[in-house]
Design brief:
- The complex is a heterodimer of chains A (404) and B (518).
- Chain A is of the alpha/beta class and 404 residues long.
- Chain A has 3 domains: 128 residues, 3-Layer(aba) Sandwich (Rossmann fold), CATH 3.40.50; 121 residues, Nitrogenase molybdenum iron protein domain (Rossmann fold), CATH 3.40.50; 127 residues, Nitrogenase molybdenum iron protein domain (Rossmann fold, 3-Layer(aba) Sandwich), CATH 3.40.50.
- In chain A, 43% of the residues lie in helices and 16% in strands.
- Chain A contains 17 helices and 13 strands.
- Chain A has a 5-stranded parallel beta sheet with strand order 11-10-9-12-13, with helices on both faces. Chain A has a 4-stranded parallel beta sheet with strand order 2-1-3-4, with helices on both faces.
- In chain A, helix 2 links the parallel strand 1 and strand 2.
- The two termini of chain A are 33 Å apart.
- Chain B contains 22 helices and 12 strands.
- In chain B, helix 14 runs antiparallel to helix 15 and helix 15 packs parallel to helix 21.
- Chain B is globular and about 70 Å long.
- Classes of the chains: A alpha/beta (404), B alpha/beta (518).
- Chains A and B meet through helix 1, helix 2, strand 2, helix 3 and helix 4 of A and helix 1, helix 2, helix 3, helix 5 and helix 6 of B.
Amino acid sequence: MSFVDPMQADKLLGVFRAVSGLKDAVVVVHSPVGCHWGINYIQRLSYRKTNSTVSALRERSVIFGGHEHLKKSIEIIFKNKKKDKYLIILSASVPSIIGDDIEGIISESSVSDVSYLVFDCGGYKGKMMEGYEEALEELFPWIEEKKKKDSSLLVNIIGIQRDIPMGEANIKEIKRMLSLFGIKINSIFPPERIKEIKDASKADLNIVFGYGKGLAEKMKEEFGIPYIFFEEYPYGISLCERFLKKVAQHFGISEKRTEKVLQREKRRILNALKPAHMYLHTLYDLPVAVSGDFAQVKGISNFLSKELGCMIKLVNVNACDDFSDLSEKVLFQASMHEFENAIYDVDLIFGSETEKTISKKMNIPLIQFSYPILSRIFLNDTPYLGFKGIPVLVEEIINHLQML
Amino acid sequence: MKKVKRQIWGTKLSYACRYSIDCKMFGAYCFISEIKNAIPLLHGPVGCAFFPKLVPPDAIRTNLLKDFDPSPFPCTDLNEKDIIYGAEDKLYNAIIDADKYYKPELIGVIISCPAAIIGDDVVSAVKRAKDKISADIIYTPSSAGFSDDERTDDFNRHAEDLIRVWKEKKKPKWGIEKCGRLDTMFSVISQLVEEPKEKIKRSINIDTYGRFHWFEDLEGEIREIKSVLKEIGISVNAAFPGCSVKEIKGLAKAELNFMRRSERSAIFMKEKFGIDYIFDTFGNRYVGIGGAKSFYIDIGERFGLKEKAKQVIGEVERKLWNDLKEAKKELYGKKIAYVCTPLYTTPIFIKLLEKLGLRIELILINTLWWRRWGMAKKTARKVVKEFIESLNISSNPSIYTDLNIDEELDAIRQKEIELVICDVLVSDISRTMFYENSGIRSVSPHYMGYSSFRISFSQVKKLAEIILSALNSKPYKRDLIYFKYDYHKERFPTLISDIPDELRWERIMKHVWRGKER
C-alpha cells in the first residue's frame, strides 16, 4: 500500500522527547502552533512535564520568514532572566523548508548571550528514534571538561527513555543494580538538568542502552570515556546478568563477587515469583505480538520467548535486525493497517497507546510498555526493567490475561 | 458515554493543551472524522498524522456516530526527496490504495504545511484519482497549520460581539469561518453536495456541532428538533455532520438550511442551489425557552407555517411547565449564587434560573478566561459593565467581579447561599469541589449534561432535575487531598508552581501568535 497510517512519529517528536524534560532549558518549537500542540500533547500525557513553547508561525511567516516570530518568542522567554539562559530550538518543517537562519535570528535578538542548541527536525527529515538519537548526540557541546574529585566508580546512563511506562522506576532499578557493585550514576541522558550534561565528563564509563551511541563516541573521543553498548534494554534474568557482568568486568570486579551478587539477586526474584508458579506454565507457547522501538522490543521479546516460553508471533519494530530466533514474523516500521492484518491468533500484545484501538477491536489484552503511553499513570517504583522488573512483568501478564 | 469517560477525556485534553493550541490540519481531521464512513488522508509527513489518533474523538463522532475510537489517519509519508521533487503521484497512489483498503464512502484529502509550501498540485491528483475510486473525494485547500486562522485575530473583537448579542440581539460579526473544521465543512459542501433531482417540500438541514463537548446531548437535541418540526409539518432532510456521505450529497434537496457555524457554506448553497438559510452563530439567538420558541416560529414562517408552529410550540411549552410543576415548587425561593464567565447565552441562562423559581442572590463574574485568551483588562471591565446592564431579572443579586477563590467563598457564606451554580468554562469541577469541600452545595450543570447552547425544551427539564438533585444531595464532610496543594488564588485552579509556564504561554499567544506589540 502506498499510504502509511503511522505507528510512530517523526523526527520532531524524537528530538522533543529527548530535550523537553530539561527543567532549566527552554525548548522553542519554531513552527506553526499545531506542531508544538501535537508533540506537547503526547509528551505531557506521557507523564513528562515539558518546558517548551512555540514561535507560532503564521501564513505571513512562510512568505517573509519566521525570524520576527522566533525573535519575539526568545525575548519573551528570557525577559527577566539575567543568567543561566539555556535555549533549545527545534526547527520544524516550515522553517526547515523556507530556510530560516536560526543562528542569525538569535544573534539579532536582545538575548544574544544565551547558550543555545538548534535542531533541524522537519517532520519529513526522519522518524522519531532518529531524532531521539540525534538529539542525544547534539547535547555534546554543553558537556564541560571536568574531573571527578574522589575515587568512586561513576557511570553515565545513556538512552534509557524516561517517558515510557515505568520510566523513572526503570532508572531507579538500574541505579540499584549498579549500586550492588558500588557503582554510582553520574548523569542520565535524556537529562533533566543542565548540570547533568555539564558534569557528564566526570564519569568513568558510559553505559548506552539502545540510543545515544553517537554521544558516547564523541565523549570517548573528547574525554577518553569508554562505553559499553547494549542494543536492548535489560528485561529478564539473562539480559540483566549480561548487563551487570559486562559492567563489573569493565571495573575489574572479580568474577566470584559478581557471581555472588547475581546469585543473590536471582534467588530473590525467584522467591518473589514463586506464588505465581502455578500460572507460569500457562505462559508456555502463549502467542504474543510485540510492537515498539527496537531496544525495548528486542529486550522484552528475549524475556518473553526465552525465559517465559511465550511464542512471539509478530514483532513490529522501528529498526532492522535479525529476530529469527525470537519471532515468527517481523514488520519494520509498519503502518497500522499492516500491523492489524498481521496479527493472527495472538492472545497478548505488548505495545503502546498506538496499539490500543487494535487491542480493543480484536479483544486482545494490551500491556503498554513502550512509547507513547497516554492512558496510564505511574506513581510507584515498580519497574519493568532489571531484576525487580521480572515479577512486575509476570504480574502484569497474568493479570491482563485474566481480564479476557 | 459514561460520565467518568468524558471527564477523563476532558481532563486529559485540557491538561495537555494548557500551553499549546491546535492547528487547522487537526480541525480538518476532526471534521472528516465526523462523517460516517469517511476517511481523512493527509498529504504530509508521518508526524502530522500520528498525534491526532491519540486525541479522544470528537463529540459528534462519539455521540452521533457512536464510534468511540479516533479515525485512522493514513498519510503520504512525505520525505526529503518528496519535498525537493514533489509528491503528486505519491498522493495519487495513496488515494487509490486508501480507497481499496478502507473502502470508505468519502476520502477527505487534507493538506499539511510541507505540501502547501512546495505547492504540490493536489487538485490534479484528486481529479486523476476521482474516476478510479469507488469513494467520493474532496480536498481541503487551506488546511495547512500556518494558514489564515481567525483565532489569531484580536480577542477584543469577541467583546464587541458579546455586547452586540446581549444588547442588540444581533448575531456576532467575528465568526470562526476560517478554523480548520469550518474550512473543511466548506470544502465538503462545495465539492460534494449534488444538484438534486427534486426538492423535498418543507424540508430543512440542521447543522449540529460538537467539538470536544462530550457532555452535551447532541443526539437528544436533534431528536427533539426532528420531532417538533415533524408536528409542525417540516421534515429534517439531514442533520450534519454526524451523518452519512449520502445525506451530505443530498443536502440540496432541502428548502432551508439552519446553519450555526459556517455562513460561508450557507451562502454557497444559496447561490448554487437556491436554498435559503437561517444563520445563527452557535444558535445563540435560539437558546433558552424563548429562543427555542423563536427557532420553530422562524422556521415555520419560512414555510408559511408560522401559526401552526405557534400552536405546536404552545403545546410543547405547556407540557414542559406542567412537567416542571413539582420541581418548581421545590426550587422556589432557593438562594443561589451563580459563578460565571459571561458568554453569549449567559443572560438568557440566568433568566431561565429565575423562571425555575430560584432566587439569585449573588453573581460572581470571572473574566480570567477572556483575559487568558488576550482580552485587555480594560475591555473585560467594559464587557462586565455591559453584561450587568443587559441583565433584566427580577432578583436583585449582589454582583462581584474577579474575586479570588477565598473571597468568593466569603461572599457566598455571607449570603447564606444554598447552592452555587458554576459556569466558569475551564474550572467548573475544581470550583464545585472547592465549595463543597467548604461545606457549600455546588453543581456544574454543564458537567452534569446540560448545555445552555442547545436548542431544546427538554434540556430545561434536565436543568431543573440537575439543580434539584444538587440541592437535595447529602452534604459530606470532606477534607480533599486535591486542596492540599498551593493554588494561585486569582487563577484557581492553577497551581502556583505552574504560574510561570501559564504566563509565558499567554505572552506568546498575545505578542507572537496574535502579533500584538509589547
